[in-house]
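hey so i finally got around to running both of the ones u sent me last week. sorry it took forever, my laptop kept dying halfway thru and i had to restart like 3 times lol. anyway pasting them below in the order u listed, first the sequence line then the structure token line for each. didnt double check formatting much so if smth looks off just lmk and ill redo it

first one:
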Amino acid sequence: MEGLSGVEQGLKQSHKHQAIFLVLNGLTAAWIIGSLGDFLVGPAFAIAGIQAICAFRFTRRGSIIGIRAGQVGYLVSSVILGLMGFIWVMNGIMLDAILVFILGGLGIVRIQRLENPEYKEWYSGGAAALAHLRYTTENEVLASCPSCGSLLGIVLEKLEPTDRCPHCNNALVPSADLESE
């Protein structure tokens, strides 16, 4: 189970980077739109507001809605950056176009990364949900041995009163020891 804490730390770090990148991607898109002319300052603020709402909801873990909000934020900014890249290519501003294409493309890659099953489980249920996903099979639940506390995958339908812990060899059903005495 030591590997689980490392995976959880990695997912926390990934989430932090995702949230920072979401904000930066949105601010860049809003800044580019706002810099095109005074008449686009309002839409730029609207885009920045949408990005802020999406980023705020994304940082609040707990449900799939947060992941979807992050994906919407990335999608909005990536589309804007892609459109700006096309406009700049048509006007011959190649270096800027390449840079916004790269930034927009990275946003699309991050949308796909948010669909990782481990990330989604951790995002919505924390370490317990991640442990359940990683260490159990179908119809199996995580339980701890009543004697030594070892974490075990148990299929409840197959649990017998005589089953013993593979670590300490004590009964998994505490009443089984009392009945045998």
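and the second one:
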Amino acid sequence: MKFILKYAFACVVMVIAHPAMAWEMTGTRSITLHSRDGQSLVVGSVNFKPQGNRIGVSVHMDDARFKDFFLSMKEFKCIETPDEVFCHVPYPHANPASVTPTDLAWLEHALMFMFKAPKEFGAKLWNGIYYRLELTDKGLVGWPQAIDLNMIGAPPDDKTVPPYGIGERSDIAPDVRWFNKLTIQ
């Protein structure tokens, strides 16, 4: 019994002394969309740069992965899928462009999309997709939520507060959208 207690104590000390390495928001990381049929598509990158007590974020989408669509008098960068046309909609207003491990809102706002049926005419801004990000030990994982992109047509009064809070987003049933997950690794 004494041996077992010593062994258990040693295991606890090792775990405390060597905690699991957490994924860090540093450098340039890939942005990948994951489809419900198991495919992955790297669509861009995000650069993380220390910025005081926050981390600056700069998103770059890879235009070669997108096709130009002219919808409702505006050009969109889109991906055609079997079910829908999926378009990136970058947040159009000045913002802090920074995050913390517990506040990923401005990065989430840089990764908004909209979808429409291939045969529909024009942009369907009420069909917005917002990927709610979670920090994991392997990177950031985003799950799609529904938003109305018409809400960001005009600049907000307070540019430091992200407009899409919890009350402006709705969960989406799994596998309803073609791209059902977004990762940053």
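quick thing i noticed on the 2nd:
The first strand starts at residue 27 and ends at 35.
anyway thats it, ttyl
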